[in-house]
Amino acid sequence: MRARLSGGHFRMINEKLYTCTGDEALNYFKEDPSLFDMYHTGYQEQMSHWPEQPVNIIIQWLKAHSSSLVVADFGCGDARLAKNVKNKVFSFDLVSNDPSVIACDMSNTPLDASSIDVAVFCLSLMGTNFSSYLEEAHRVLKPSGRLLIAEVKSRFDPNTGGADPKMFSKAISDLGFTSTLKDFSNKMFVLLYFQKKGKENLTRKGIEWPELKPCLYKRR
Ligand code: SAH
């Protein structure tokens, strides 16, 4: 009974996060931070059914590259990434339950411009204003810095109302990135990696972002 109730709460909070802006989500958790723990208990339960965790793929990527790369983990959850690599990692989420996590809306981080080598979004492009998170990543990344995105696969399946991955990649390219990897081989998530272009006078106006549909989890 208790598990059922908390599963219901998880699905409700999850839907809220996918249908509001980051700013609204920040206020939502500020009013009741216990909802954040409820969300993460449910999230971990869902993840335990995934054969592979995307965060582990990102951890492997970082381990295969220089540990001197400075990382920003946008929407870090329990900061598993920071705990498993030697790199300096700035971890951001809406609520901080750990001194290493900086609580903020990730469209507005305290990082300096051009200060980061790798920006990570692992299942965290949740808000309806997700493009402003990617703009923030572009701001804080150094030229040639990497942008690593792992997202729920169904959100990029046009056959079931998901976004066209080509349109999504094109929008990110227009923001000032080059695509370096598109991996659709995993059943549960896609990996889309990019590299920031050098200094260019880019305009953010006129970029056509697709809508990313919410990832709603089924009752198990
Ligand atoms: N990256 C982690 C957690 C994924 S869950 C992992 O792979 O395990 C998605 C996380 O993104 C949640 O913890 C949620 O609170 C966070 N998030 C969503 N929108 C955010 C925002 N606007 N600012 C900061 N964090 C956000």
UniProtKB/TrEMBL annotation:
The keyword S-adenosyl-L-methionine applies. It is found in: Nucleus, Nucleolus. It is an enzyme of class 2 (transferase). InterPro entries: RRP8, RRP8_N, SAM-dependent_MTases_sf. The keyword Lipoprotein does not apply. GO terms for biological process: chromatin organization; methylation; rRNA processing. One of its GO terms (molecular function) is methyltransferase activity. Its main location: nucleus. Its EC number is 2.1.1.-. Pfam families: Methyltransf_8. GO terms for cellular component: nucleolus. SUPFAM superfamilies: S-adenosyl-L-methionine-dependent methyltransferases. Keywords: Chromatin regulator, Methyltransferase, Nucleus, Repressor, rRNA processing, S-adenosyl-L-methionine, Transcription, Transcription regulation, Transferase. Belongs to the methyltransferase superfamily. RRP8 family. Probable methyltransferase required to silence rDNA. PANTHER family: RIBOSOMAL RNA-PROCESSING PROTEIN 8. This is Ribosomal RNA-processing protein 8. It comes from Salix purpurea (Purple osier willow).
